[in-house]
């Protein structure tokens, strides 16, 4: 038998380290075992059981290297926890939203009448995986006592609201004391952060810039301007090249002076809204601003109510008025690469108008005539030219109907394996029903402070229906589908006397027919290559539990719907009429 030779010192050293040692012994080395018996117990199988007390009493000190590694591991763990807790998480950055696909949704929003064009805006912190949908809105004009701001006593006439394209939830909302008139979120990057911002023109021609997170970069809505400005002549600003070298395009617009009846031609800094140039013109109004490829500014100067004159101004001449240095046109961005605001509506008059829209070889012509709603008539004609002959695809003529601005579309329908194109037409139908409404009585019930007995109102309710028609072409035939139908309650109020008792002929309807002209948009919200259809409609909803239409529980609501257009289109090929 081979014996393991362990001297006393090495055994004690290993034992103090807490190591178990198996010993092979015999009678011949019993003296060795007796020598170490005091330091442990032995069983019959000669397994040593170490004395724990002895182990605790004698501990070898940690080496310098191990001590450094141990401290470093603790510090590293603490740093990981601290960094994780300090990572920013802003409310506008929903991490999961950028990874989710857009699904069909529908929501309603209270005390808001959405109006005008629908805009989309990218999220700077989301790697642009999806877009938010931006709307203008008008507050309740029929029951204005409900429009006071929660943050201040200031009356709120409207504002801007952004909805998540994925879910329809409100991302942010900004109230405004002046009602917004028009908005465009595709023209300028005011803060130069790589994401387009929203330019807003209010009802008095004041300009604001709102970033993609809903913060005002600059806001001039509280400045005093002439409130006699004709609202039909308020044009969106003209986008100019960067003139001051701050890498942000400048803005040009007509500015109605509150002190006199003249209008100034002004150039504003796109970055901060400050006036770079003010050139007084002998004009009552300035509108229809344009710029050509030679940097020549054209606009219409209205000298008198019915006298108009076109004026040309060279941008270099205007620049020389504020700078001693000549303007280097070669360094300016080409005009053709600068996006300008497209005026889709509202149309100036609903009495008589014609709208023509085309897609592929199809031509859609919509004609509205007469005063809405009693005398309103619509004519819709869809044609194409085949071998020199006009082919009529679809005709629709009706009374008490008004058609909005049509939306053409063209997309690659992968499920059908072919290109699909067509039109979306929204129109209102009045069923001839109207109810007189005692607005003064119900205002008194809801808010005694807002009741003014010296003023005289004539109020009525109209019951309408809103339809959305889809006209779809593929390579073989045409399909027509009534995509949606909604009931609308409209209040129309005519004020015959003001608070002083003087005669006044002013009328207001809510929801306003003109505000719904461009309430449909087709866009790729989640950047997946497929198109979504977004539509909104506003109405008053009666929350009276007894169903009394003359009750005082009317609440203004706007309903917004989004659905995947390319997913829903294949369903048209089974249950629709073929023309």
UniProtKB/TrEMBL annotation:
Its main location: membrane. The chain crosses the membrane at residues 68-87. It is a single-pass membrane protein. GO terms for cellular component: membrane. SUPFAM superfamilies: Integrin alpha N-terminal domain. InterPro entries: Beta-prop_FAM234A_B, FAM234, Integrin_alpha_N. The keyword Membrane applies. Keywords: Membrane, Transmembrane, Transmembrane helix. This is CLUMA_CG019998, isoform A. It comes from Clunio marinus.
């Amino acid at each position: 038998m081979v014996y393991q030779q362990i001297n006393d010192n090495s055994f004690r050293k290993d034992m103090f380290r807490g190591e178990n040692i198996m010993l092979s012994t015999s009678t011949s080395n019993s003296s060795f075992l007796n020598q170490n018996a005091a330091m442990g117990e032995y069983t019959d199988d000669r397994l040593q059981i170490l004395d724990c007390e002895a182990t605790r009493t004698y501990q070898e000190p940690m080496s310098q290297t191990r001590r450094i590694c141990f401290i470093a591991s603790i510090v590293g763990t603490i740093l990981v926890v601290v960094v994780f807790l300090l990572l920013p998480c802003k409310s506008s950055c929903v991490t999961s939203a950028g990874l989710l696909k857009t699904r069909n949704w529908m929501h309603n929003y209270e005390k808001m009448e959405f109006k005008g064009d629908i805009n989309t805006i990218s999220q700077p912190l989301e790697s642009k995986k999806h877009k938010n949908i931006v709307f203008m809105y008008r507050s309740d004009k029929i029951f204005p006592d409900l429009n006071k701001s929660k943050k201040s006593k200031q009356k709120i006439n409207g504002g801007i609201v952004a909805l998540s394209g994925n879910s329809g939830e409100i991302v942010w909302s900004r109230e405004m004391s002046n009602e917004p008139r028009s908005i465009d979120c595709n023209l300028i990057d005011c803060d130069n952060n790589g994401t387009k911002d929203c330019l807003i023109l209010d009802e008095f021609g004041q300009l604001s810039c709102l970033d993609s997170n809903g913060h005002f970069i600059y806001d001039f809505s509280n400045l005093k301007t002439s409130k006699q400005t004709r609202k039909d002549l308020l044009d969106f600003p003209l986008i100019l090249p960067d003139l001051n070298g701050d890498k942000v395009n400048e803005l040009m617009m007509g500015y109605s002076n509150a002190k006199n009846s003249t209008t100034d031609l002004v150039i504003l800094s796109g970055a901060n809204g400050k006036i770079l140039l003010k050139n007084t013109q002998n004009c009552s109004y300035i509108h229809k601003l344009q710029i050509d490829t030679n940097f020549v500014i054209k606009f219409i100067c209205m000298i008198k109510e019915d006298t108009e004159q076109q004026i040309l101004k060279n941008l270099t001449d205007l620049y020389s008025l504020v700078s001693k240095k000549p303007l280097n046109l070669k360094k300016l961005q080409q005009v053709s690469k600068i996006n300008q605001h497209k005026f889709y509506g509202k149309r100036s008059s609903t009495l008589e108008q014609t709208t023509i829209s085309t897609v592929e070889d199809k031509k859609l012509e919509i004609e509205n005539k007469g005063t809405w709603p009693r005398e309103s008539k619509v004519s819709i004609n869809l044609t194409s030219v085949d071998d020199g002959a006009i082919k009529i695809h679809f005709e629709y003529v009706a009374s008490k109907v008004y058609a909005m601005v049509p939306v053409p579309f063209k997309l690659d329908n992968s499920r059908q394996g072919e290109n699909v194109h067509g039109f979306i037409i929204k129109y209102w139908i009045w069923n001839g029903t109207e109810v007189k409404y005692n607005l003064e009585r119900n205002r008194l019930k809801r808010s005694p402070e807002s009741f003014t007995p010296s003023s005289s109102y004539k109020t009525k309710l109209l019951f309408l229906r809103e339809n959305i028609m889809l006209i779809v072409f593929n390579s073989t035939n045409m399909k027509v589908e009534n995509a949606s139908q909604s009931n609308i309650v409209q209040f129309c109020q005519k004020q015959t006397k003001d608070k002083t008792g003087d005669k006044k002929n002013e009328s207001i309807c809510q929801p306003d027919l003109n505000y719904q002209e461009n309430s449909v948009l087709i866009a790729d919200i989640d950047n997946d290559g497929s198109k979504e259809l977004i539509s909104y409609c506003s109405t008053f909803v009666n929350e009276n539990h007894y169903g009394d239409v003359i009750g005082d529980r009317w609440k203004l609501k706007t309903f917004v719907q989004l659905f995947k257009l390319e997913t829903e289109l294949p369903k048209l090929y089974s249950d629709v009429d073929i023309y």
